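Researcher: I'm preparing a figure for a lab meeting and need a structural model of a single chain. I don't have an experimental structure, so a prediction will have to do for now. The sequence is pasted below. Please return the structure as tokens so I can convert it later.
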Amino acid sequence: MHFAAVLLGLLAALLPAAGQAQGREILPDRIVAFGDFGVGGSTQRAFGEAVRRFEARNHADLLVTLGDNDYTENPAAFWTNWQESFGWTQAAGLRIAGVLGNHDVRVDGGRYQFETLGMAGRFYRLRRRNVELFLLDSTRVDRAQTAWLARVLRRSKAPWKVAVVHHPAFTCGSYRSHPAVVRNWVPLFERHGVRLVLSGHDHNYQRFAPRRGVRYVVHGGGGAGAYEPQACPSGYPRRLRAWKEHGFLYLVARANRLDGWTVTTTGRRTDHFTFSAGG
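Model: Understood. Here is the structure written out token by token.
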């Protein structure tokens, strides 16, 4: 009897801790993402303030940039513009993760941005609770990067695999598909269970229907001049949404469900998409 009582007491003491550990494991990952924002001046400051206001009401853990982080092509100006528009992220506890765009690599291959944007290199991965991000350099789709991507995607056990690039695999605005991304990386996304691919470059918002299990979302509305969406060529996945809009993406990834919203600079949510781990 005494032994049974002691055992029950131990179980009672351990169960709350186990429940708390389980609760920590299933906390969602909340991500803000945007591209083509690095214009500097009052426009970038206003955009950063819009993101700050939204994040103050809608918690985020991670801020992801989709490239063209600096149109000034001036490292000192880039750092000043970032501090003036997104310096608040440190106090808010947001981790930063960026990728390079075509404007970023014109000076020093974009390396001057690595420290500010939390970049381990021109391509790298970042594992969160439910999401593993594969942050790629689409300005130089070379063999070394493609081999690395194949290896890390194959090994990943994350509930959600999300690829982040600047140049879209599919887009119909001022640009079209990036041939090297489609040729080298799209087959890897499809083969290794990538569920979502985020990109910028086209200064608008576009969302496509799944293609072999992969969803493609473009959002280059971070502050540079917006582009009108155009009709898509045949052979593209079906485009579900498209409009010219300044703003950003807000993603919430739980263990079995991912939700995404587009948010304008006024804080209005204009699109919502969701999909489950099995669908």
